[in-house]
Every structure is written in structure tokens, then in C-alpha cells.
Amino acid sequence: MKKWLCMLLATLMLLATAACGKSDTAADGTTLSTTAAQATENDTTTAADTALEDPAPTDGLPNKNMDGFSLNIVHHDTSWLTWAETQLDAKEVNGELVNDAIYERNTIIEDRFNATINVTSIEKVEDMIQKEVMSGDNTYDIYMQYGIRVLSNLHLLADFNNIPKLSLDADYWNPAATGIFCIGNKQIAIAGNFSLSYASGSSCMVFNKDIYSELKIADDPYALVREGKWTTDKFFEIAAKGTADLNGDGTMDTADRFGSQGSVKSFFNGLINGADIQYVRIGEDGAPYFTLTADDRAVNFMQKLLDKVTADPYVFYNDQADVDSESANVKFTDGKCLFNTTSIHKINTKLRGSDILYGILPQPKYDEQQEKYYSQTNIGEIATLPRSFDDARAENIGILLEAMAFYSQQHIIPQYKEVILQAKAARDEQSMEMLGYVFDGICFDFGVVVWQNEVGNILMEIVFKPKANNLGSTIRIVDKMTKNKIGNLMDQLDDVP
User: Fold this and answer.
1) Could you report the per-residue pLDDT of 419-429, keeping only the tens digit for each?
2) pTM to 2 decimals?
């Protein structure tokens, strides 16, 4: 059955390729169809000719016969890593959109290159990589590691620059995420869309459509996003309208309604990163640096967040001591909040069965001049290359990973959007558009997904959770801590092959 399906899918792919025409490469390296290539050589081309539709994108990879090569990947199963979508393979078609799209992707790529994509799922990858690499074994080509474990296993990793055929600046490699793992010009991890881990962890907001309508709020939230006017100030302005003393007792308590809800970490980190502010960036010298000591714009913005939630304690509610937990008593799914800061994965797994009719929005921007919306992503698992990798396998590894990432961008991400929209997320045309803004803005903050405990969580625990007036002093403490870590990290990177 699988062999028959392979042949069918391969035939369909060949027909699609033929329909696009033979490919040529222009002087700037872009791929053109034969029609377009000929048009550039024809001095008599008319405006109507140049209005032809752009050709379908291609991965530009050679159709290499790999003679049964097996790409071996080990990653987390769902017994521990539950907060992101980690499925990488599918044994059969079962009617589930994402499962079937993954099956089709792997089948097409395996048939195209005469190769096998072999995926092993275990509870925790860091236990295996330590054992395998220290013994010199190369059982696996790629280890999908939990993000904040990558640096602690740096002595086991190799530079992805050893792997050819990877276009890491392409959209399907999420360069705003992959880029933070390029340290000292060594690419120690990569975040491609061959895994849904990063897309599923994208930070976003949901709003209660019924409450929004009941309050007769004039601003159409989807239009605000589309017009670039969905800003932090606009969010707080609207969220404040959502607060209400529902039982009329003159006291705001868990029986009433609040402007927004979410975990402390997701709420504040989402707004901060959404404003194109990162705690730690990679400098031109390739070294990470703590940004807040020299970024008055960022510090002033963070202070503004504190001032707003202090002045109006009902605009954001959370009664948990743990910065990772949402309120136990004021739940969005109970209709007690206008907004909720969440992730795509939580929408898909936690809100699907809710009776609340809700819509999806990206994180708001710093202001209307900000170029795009950014989605802070809580990392699940990310691809790393073991130090024991076999150099003779490098080209095949690169070709297969590139093909998987490219294909996923074209076919699996759209199917994943459809799965999300099958819930009560918002059965309207704007929903797919809003998911586009979320996915197009995927970014990592080194101070959240790598140095989470050293940077991001310190700010959450000491400043934002207690709403303390100590932002400046906390920044100085974190700055001192990170300077020591940066020096040690750069020394370790010298030994990464």
C-alpha cells in the first residue's frame, strides 16, 4: 500500500514540476521558470507578458540518488515534552491533517532521494546524547534537544556549518529563531519548520468574541492588526474596558471579569518580545550580550508595563506564585477575561473543547512604526548536530533536512493552520490571516529560551510577578551575571568543531 502511494505521490510531484516549466537560475541566484527566464531575454516582452504569475518556489536541491541512505533523528516523545507539537513522522495515513501531511512529506522525500527518514522517539534526549557521543557512536545524525539544555551539552555538539545544502536564512528555517544559536560564528542549533515545535509554541493572544461584542468596542481587532495599529497601548486601552464588577458588591474578586489573563511569564515576555525587545542578542562579534543596560527604549517600555498593571490591577490578573502557571480561579475558558495570552499549542489542545467563542491575534507591537509583529516562542525541541557525526554523511544530511524544512513550509504549516481553525478559534476568514502574522513573526530570545533561568525568569520572579519598583537594580544584577557567563561560553565555543 505504501509503495503504491509513494508511486502516486511521486507522479503527482512530477506533474506539478512539469506544469511549472523547466527551472533556470537568474544572475541573482533566484529560480525562474522557463517562461520567465525566456522573458528576461526577450527585448520585446510586453507588460501583459511580465504580469504572468510567479512560478511555484522550489528547494533548488539536486535529485540525488542516495542508495538507501537513512537519516537518523532522535527526539522527545509526548510523555515529558507536552507543551509543543513534536511529531516528525507518521507510520500511516489516519485522516488527521497534520499526521497525513507529515506522512506525505516523508514519503515524497524518501522516494525522491531513495532514502529513509528514520525517527526514534524517547522521553528525554539529553540522557542519550551524553551516552552516545561520549562513546564515539554516531547512531543518530540529529538530536532534537530541549532548548535550555543545548549549552549544557555544548561539549557534545558540532557546528552546523559542517553540513552543506542548508539555506538557514530562508523563511522555512525561521532565521529570527535559528539566528540566536549562531554564536561565535558557530551554528550550534537550527530551528527549521520540519518540526512544528516552534510554530506550535508561538505566543499569541485570544479574545472573547461575545464579551467584545457585548462591550460594543468600536475597534475591529482584526483591522487593527491588518493596519499595523495593534499596539501595546491599544491592547491596554481595550483590556481596561473588559474589567467589570459583575456581582455588584463593590469589590473585584474571582466572581468578576478581568481585562486579561495568562501566566506571568507568557504575558510579560510576550509583550516585551512582541515589541521587538530582547533581553539578550547576538552581537556583530558573534557573542551574546545583555541588551537592557544600554537600551533606554526597552527599559522604559518594561517600566511602562509595570506602571500599567500596577495602576490598574484588574487589567491583568494572575493569583499564582509560579510564574509559569495561569490563574486557577480566573479562567478565560470560564468567560472571566476579555483577553488571554497563550500559545498556538494551547489553543489546539486546551481551548478546543471550550464553549467560549474566541478569536486569535498576534502579540501587539511597540508602536505603529514597528515594521512587523513578533511572536516570542517557548522552545520545545531544536535540532543539534552531535560531535561524533560522520563527515561522509554530511551532504545527504543537509539535503534531506533542507527538503524537509522547505516542504513543511509549503504544505505542513498550512495544514497545521487548518487544524487550529477546526476548533472554535474563530470560524471566520480573518483567522487564517491572523495565524499568518503569528507564524511569520516567530522569534527566540536568548534570554528566554537559552538563559531562561539566568535572565528571563529572574526578571519575572523579582520584578514583574511582585510588581516591584526594582527594575533598574535587577538589570544591574543580571548584567553582572551574564558578563561572566559570556566569557565562559566563548571559551567553550573555541573547542566546537
Assistant:
1) 887 765 555 67
2) 0.85
